[in-house]
Structure formats: structure tokens, C-alpha cells
Amino acid sequence: MSFVKWIGAAIGWSFGGPIGAIIGIALGSIVDNATDSSPLLGERQAGKKWRRNPHQRTTYQRQRTQRPQTRSGDFEVSLLILASVVIKADGKQDQRELDFVRQQFTNMYGKERANMAFRLFKGITKQNISTRQVCMQIKQMMDHASRLQLLHFLFGIAKADGLVTQDEIKQIYTIAGYLGISSRDYESIKAMFYNSTNNAYKILEIEKTVSDDEVKRAYRKMAKKYHPDRLSHLGEEHREGAEEKFRQVQEAYEHIQKERGFK
């Protein structure tokens, strides 16, 4: 599959708005660097199509009043852009974090698609990105369950080098706010990546002082929120990531059950 055809077939609403502009610049740098003998030469003109006519209404602009279903490709490019923001948060790009992104994309999409995504990712990391504008587009166009999955992945990137810096935490917190993710949901997902005595309670979004019945209600609520079926529209490639969050909710509940001795 050619690079441009992969992009064109994979995305929907992310073709427009600030995300589309970022993709266009990254794609343009790829085709502009191609030599006359390169297989990408035939894509050079196609790449120019991404330089949007300012008078042309985009898919993003037309659909602002309704939220279309997020495609796997929309999630993919949103993830690439936000990953680049987090990786640069501490002022450097750690190879372990880059390797984590590549490995996760390989696990989700296969080697060929992951390689194409990583080429695009390199073009994205060279740009100065308005985090607020990108996140506002994602918030408006992407469902809540998918946004939670984005946040889970971003914490995974930050933790990939074994040390989550305060700059990375601050950046992810800012992203969560722009994405319309509540502080409770943010703390719940954050707790999945840290070890502390109250982590199980944070994952279930409750205080340690609640009753056993409240623990059970919280578990049912969180199990519903993080159920993998909520991300089925993203395709089978994202099921493993969805199941990971769901599994951590189950483990948190089982930990509290054992600690309190109830069934």
C-alpha cells in the first residue's frame, strides 16, 4: 500500500482542522524529500493535496454540530501527535520512549503499517504543535471512551523510560483537561501506572473510607466505563489496550476484596 493511500483510507474527521494541517506538513516533508527515482515520486502531487485551500470547508468544519464515529486512523494520527507532545515535554526525546511508540504501533497495526506511521511521526515531532487546538478538535470529534484510551497510552509512553518527570505529568494533565477528561478519570488512569497503598481505590475513583457496598457499585461503574466493547468501533487492533484498562479495574477490585475480606 502506498503511503498516501494508507493515510487517505485510514482517516475521517482528522483530515480537517489543526490535525489535518499537521499531517499535511509531515506528509509534505516526506514526499518532498523523495528523489526522482523514489517510489514516493508518484505520491508527490498527492501530498500537495494536503495543503488545504483556505476557502474550502473541511470535514471538521462541516461536522462540528455532530460527532462522527472515530475511525482507527483518526485515533492513530491523534495518538501520534499527542505522543510527540509528551515525548518532548521534558526537553528531549528519549530513545526508549520512541521505541515504545514503535513497538505499540507494531503490536496494534502490524509491521508495515507501524513503519508508515512512524515515518509520519518523525515529521510530526519536528513541528511546533498547539496542544490546545489539537485537543479541542479531538474533544469535539472523538467519543469519551476513545479519549480515555488516548490518555492511557500517553502514560505508557511517559513510563517507558522508567521515570515519569514532572514536566511529563504536567503535560499529560494539561492534555487531559483540554480533552475534557475529568480529574477523577485522570487520576484513575494515572494510578494504573504507579504503585501506592491507595492505588486500587484511585483506579475505582473512590475514597478508602467508603463502605463495601460503595466499593461494589464503583466497580460496576468502572467496569462499564472501561469495558473493551466501548472501543469496538476502533477495530480489533485496539482491543488489547482496552482489555488492559479493564483488567486493571478488575485487579483493583480484587485487591480491595482481599484486603477487606468481602465477596
Question: Explain this structure to me?
Answer:
- The protein is globular and about 60 Å long.
- The chain is mostly helical and 263 residues long.
- The chain starts with a helix and ends with a helix.
- α6 packs across α9 (144-159).
- 40% of the residues are buried.
- It has 14 helices and no strands.
- It folds into two domains: 1-181, no CATH class; 182-263, Orthogonal Bundle (Helix Hairpins), CATH 1.10.287.
- It has helices at residues 3-10, 17-32, 44-48, 59-62, 72-87, 95-109, 111-125, 131-141, 144-159, 166-178, 183-191, 199-203, 212-225, 239-260.
- Residues 199-263 form the J domain.
- Residues 56-71 have a biased composition (Low complexity).
